[in-house]
Design a protein that fits this description.
The protein is α/β, with parallel strands linked by helices and 165 residues long. It is built from five helices and six strands; from the N terminus they run ββββααβααβα. A four-stranded mixed beta sheet has the order 3-2-1-4. A two-stranded parallel ribbon has the order 5-6. Helix 2 packs across helix 4 (116-124) and helix 3 (103-109) packs across helix 4 (116-124). The chain is globular, with a radius of gyration of 15 Å.
């Protein structure tokens, strides 16, 4: 993953732990739980408290966790990933709130039906968790499978969305 040197970040509290947010000049570029797998070396970026995208993301996440919204309307910058990863991440944006899909369904949707493992890898490296809803992807047998932020958080997010009771 490659982020521009102008990337800025901040941290905020969430019901599931501290969240690291990043933004570039064109949009929100990251949401990670502090310490999660694939968290980039954000301390190399400039800490910002006044970036518009970061402020919008904090408000939106607060509304999401308080069940006041089911949608996010924030400009995203997904350029840190490869073309294939970006294709997968854009497909994740199409998964409705409160619904799940399988890795196989994503691979078919993007026109790469035999690339299930590559799709799983791209889902796992999604840099904008929650807003690009990788937590809504499950195994073909209906089980909760990998989540870079931890399966306990994936379960909490799906429960919040009414998928799991």
């Amino acid at each position: 993953m490659h982020y521009p040197s102008s990337t800025v970040y901040t941290k905020t509290a969430s019901p599931l732990g501290t969240v690291v947010l990043s933004a570039t000049d064109i949009g929100l570029s990251g949401i990670w739980f502090d310490g999660q797998k694939h968290l980039p070396p954000y301390k190399d970026w400039r800490l910002s408290s006044d970036n518009t995208y970061l402020q919008q993301a904090m408000v939106a996440l607060d509304a999401y966790f308080n069940r006041q919204t089911k949608r996010f309307d924030i400009a995203l910058d997904l350029h840190a990933g490869t073309a294939f990863q970006q294709k997968v991440w854009l497909a994740l944006l199409e998964i409705p709130f409160g619904r799940t899909v399988t890795y196989q369904q994503i691979s078919q949707h993007i026109g790469a039906p035999t690339a299930v493992r590559a799709v799983a890898g791209a889902v796992g490296r999604n840099p904008v968790s929650i807003m690009v809803p990788c937590h809504r992807v499950i195994g073909s047998n209906g089980t909760l499978t990998g989540y870079a932020g931890g399966l306990d958080r994936k379960l909490s997010l799906l429960t919040l969305e009414g998928v799991v009771a």
